Amino acid sequence: MPSPASNTWINTTLPSSCSSPFKDLPSTSSPTTLIPFKKRSSANSNTITCSLQTLHFPKQYQPTSTSTSTSTKPTTTTTSTTPTRETKPLSDTKQPLPQKWNLLQKAAATALDLVETALVSHERKHPLPKTADPRVQIAGNFAPVPEHAAEHALPVAGKIPKCIDGVYVRNGANPLYEPVAGHHFFDGDGMVHAVKFTNGAASYACRFTETQRLTQEKSLGRPVFPKAIGELHGHSGIARLCLFYARSLFGIVDGSHGMGVANAGLVYFNNHLLAMSEDDLPYHVRITSNGDLTTVGRYDFNGQLNSTMIAHPKVDPVDGDLHALSYDVIQKPYLKYFRFSPNGVKSPDVEIPLKEPTMMHDFAITENFVVVPDQQVVFKLTEMITGGSPVVYDKNKTSRFGILHKNAKDANAMLWIDAPECFCFHLWNAWEEPETDEVVVIGSCMTPADSIFNECDESLKSVLSEIRLNLKTGKSTRRPIISDAEQVNLEAGMVNRNKLGRKTQFAYLALAEPWPKVSGFAKVDLFSGKVKKYMYGDEKFGGEPLFLPNGEHEDDGYILAFVHDEKEWKSELQIVNAQNLKLEASIKLPSRVPYGFHGTFIHSKDLRKQA
Prior knowledge:
By secondary structure, the protein is mostly beta strands. 9% of the residues lie in helices and 30% in strands. It is built from five helices and 33 strands. Strands 2, 28, 29, 30, 31 and 32 form a six-stranded antiparallel sheet that branches. It has a five-stranded antiparallel sheet with strand order 1-5-4-3-33. Strand 30 and strand 31 (570-577) form a beta hairpin. The longest helix is centred in the N-terminal third of the chain and has 21 residues, at 103-123.
């Protein structure tokens, strides 16, 4: 087996004007030159012009064959100068554990490592699309950070509102090991960032979620599990799957206890904080008394859950039930619905018949129904045989929404309503309007539908839309909520969660411009289409705005958002009054917080009941 690597990333030597995704972590090995990435010619304004000069790989990923094939000179860059970053070792610098393998396993491990070295060497001869190139996907503040133990008494500008008493947690992708091949931002290991509030003071910590996948890779000192989006393309993707299953066959790795990264969603339910990605069971993460985080383990709801669960389950604010979906890309049933009572008792699965496995990242609930999107982005693993991506935009399929009663025992009475050319990666809310026999769905309709996963020249648009599903006629209508003159990309956000599934007037959504960065957030009046914007500031960008309710009025509360200053290379947590959009306080953070995904807030009274 190749010599183990440090579980820290290595600095990348770059032209001084090129922003590096690897600046935060120290160098421990000699460089291996990499073929510069060449973006296919395109009229797209997002053309990548920044190439790596040299890339220091962990020791086990220094293929001898690359020494003669990577002499291409580095290309120049037009990117602006980035301030010098601090370098920090990971707080958890465990060395790989000695493996208790028999002679057959040792021989198989050596042979399969040689196969992987040849595969990596072959892959590096071909340019990667920007949707799978790590130098694009994890550049700048999308790059990973080391863990940070709880640090208290953080500097605060302004005053933290008294009602903010508890912990704000946000999930994100943070690869522990440097990618050796294709990597999509969604592929990174899960890391939870936590800001705990106590008596007007704040602390900060961030920790990896110790998934089964991450634990095994740490013991081996290298990444060995296939990356679902970045690596599983075409013939090399098939080769990586075969490599993984061969290692599994010899007992070198074990995927039977989950392969997920737990990097997307967070929900606090039945006294458990759950970190989720839709490719696995949730992971139970515990917040310690001093504001740190620790992983308890993979959570199957006391043996009740034996399938994956998507990263956006919905807690009904009235009865406290948790509603969820599970989808499978390999075998039928491709989709299941289930729910949990407030004390964690699971309902029987409701199998929802689909013709093919479908990307289903989110769904919605109303007072009585579950709203299930069956859209045009599907999984076709056979596309890999012809060299393509298994995530496919099927232009011949008609998007539709399924309406299922929350307490349904089966899907026989499920009503499907077509909604042509509609792809919503996220749904912000839904409610019933009995006077018109309609279910109203609020979501951001994205075009091109597969642009997050597959490279294309068309600019991404994410249009906040109202979709009306008529339960009587079986017809749908769709309209943009914001006027053409004010149209902006709105992605990631929420409504007041105390009113989830009921009619809401306001939504708080990330201003995803310039895509994929977030320059601020918008408070949108869903009735009038009026938009009020809050901007983070010059060269400052953030992510999902979290709305924390406080009072009887729907918009009475505060917005919490991690914000990063790309000029000063420092991060903060901003607290904004949701009614007047005025900054209440800014908490200076001791560590950079990368752009990430979704979060939640847990009040102190609930923290005291943690399992």
